[in-house]
Design goal:
Four Helix Bundle (Hemerythrin (Met), subunit A), mainly alpha, 5 helices, 269 residues, 2 domains, 88% helix
Length: 269
Amino acid sequence: MKTKKRSFKDFYKYYLLVFTVILLTVIIQSVIQYSLKEQEGYSSLINISGKQRMLSQKVLANFYECRFLEGNYTALKLALDNLYETHIDLQKGNLDIGIEPIADQEVQSLFNELNQHLDYIYSNLNDVDKLKEVSSSELSTEVASFLTLMDAIVNRFQELAEEEIRTLMIIEMELAFATIVIVLLEVFFIVNPVIKKITLQNKKLKEISWYQTHAVTSHIKNIKELQHVLKLERKMEFKEELIGCLMEELDDLEGISKDMVQTLESTTT
């Protein structure tokens, strides 16, 4: 029963070592995957915000073409609608394209300031029949303000992405340090004792091998020789003396056997 308890205790240590390594690997991989997902999200935000700048300039160019040349009113309308809808998605989020709602107060403040400029652009250009009434200089000023604020938003998204990277790098370094510490502790408290135990067991097994090779073999040889002489001896007094020697050999052999059993039992502790 004690042997079973010791065996379970030893296996428990091994299981603990394996489980700890697996757990640390899962945690580190989870952090890495989370980091990649966060960077993908910020990359998408920065990319879409950058496209907003391009769309605002495209809207202005389409306005000039429609106002002073034979422009494409459909292209103006499509670009304007895309600009407005994407602006709403950036603020309120759109999970279909992987955009989360704004959580940063500074970004939200910039969008609040940006809304008035976008509202001016959208309200003045949405009705293509009234394009001639729109002031070109005022529209250019609003688009320029829109571009400036979008630049600020893109820069803020970039700062948030860099802050997230730094935070995750710190977490990964802390996890790496914790992993090293835990592995060292496991080596010190689990692996080293196991190695010492195996070394001790090997030493004891060598002792048992020596007993079997030398002591036991020697006594068995003596017993066989005494047994042979006993068969040949005719005088009773000499037979009794041989029997005494034979019993001594048997007693010595029994003592060696007990020592071997004790050594075997100690190797399992």
